[in-house]
Amino acid sequence: MASEFQRTKLQDMFNAFDVNGDGCLEEEDFAALASRWGRLPRVRADGELAARVEEVLLGWWQHLSQTVDTDNDGRIDMDDLLAMVDRLPTMQDAVAATADTVFDAVDENGDGRISRNEHQRLIDLWHGQGITTGDVFDRLDQDADGHLSRSEFAALWIQFWISDDPDEPGNYVCGPVAGHSLR
C-alpha cells in the first residue's frame, strides 16, 4: 500500500494529468499530455521520437486501465493510481524505458545530458505550468557536473515512481514535494 509520502508526491502529478480537474484520469488526459509533450522542440522535429512519446504515454494509460480500473468505467482515481504504484517495483524495465523516452524528449540539444534548464522544462511540462524548483536540480545532480546523464536520470526516474524514502533524490525529479525537502 502506498505511503502518505508517495500519495503526496504523486498528487501533484495526478492533478497535472487531470486536464479537466474532475478528479479522475481518462484516456483523453493522457492524449492531452502527449500533445503537450509534442510541443517540445526535439519531439516536434523528430517524428520517430514523437511517435515514441505518444506510444509511451498512451501505453501507460492502457496499462493503467487494464490493471487498476477494476470497475471498467474508463476512469482512474488517485487510489487507483496508487495501486499501480504498488506494482511498479516489479516493472522496473517498463519504468526505465519511459525514462529513456522522457530523456530523449527533454534533451533538446541532443548532447546526451539534461541541463538545469532542460530539467526545468521537464518539470514545467509535466505540471502544465511554471513550477518554482529551488535547489532541486542541485540535489539531483549528485556528482555536481551541471548535468544529468542518461543513467543518472534513469535511476532518478525509477526512484520517483517506486521509492517511499523522502531522502532519495529521485523523489524530486518532477519538482518539489509539498511538506518535504531533500536533506
UniProtKB/TrEMBL annotation:
The record's annotation in Gene3D superfamilies points to: EF-hand (1.10.238.10)
CDD domains of this UniProt entry?
EFh
Give the protein's recorded name: Calcium-binding protein
Could you tell me which PANTHER family the record lists for this protein?
EF-HAND CALCIUM-BINDING DOMAIN CONTAINING PROTEIN
Family matches, as InterPro entries: EF-hand-dom_pair (IPR011992), EF_Hand_1_Ca_BS (IPR018247), EF_hand_dom (IPR002048), EF_hand_pair_protein_CML-like (IPR039647)
Protein source organism: Streptomyces coelicolor (strain ATCC BAA-471 / A3(2) / M145)
All residue ranges annotated as the EF-hand domain in the record: 5-40, 66-91, 94-129, 135-163
Keywords from the UniProt entry = Metal-binding, Repeat
- GO MF annotations, alphabetized: calcium ion binding
Q: Which Pfam families match?
A: EF-hand_7
Q: What is the lineage of its organism?
A: Bacteria, Bacillati, Actinomycetota, Actinomycetes, Kitasatosporales
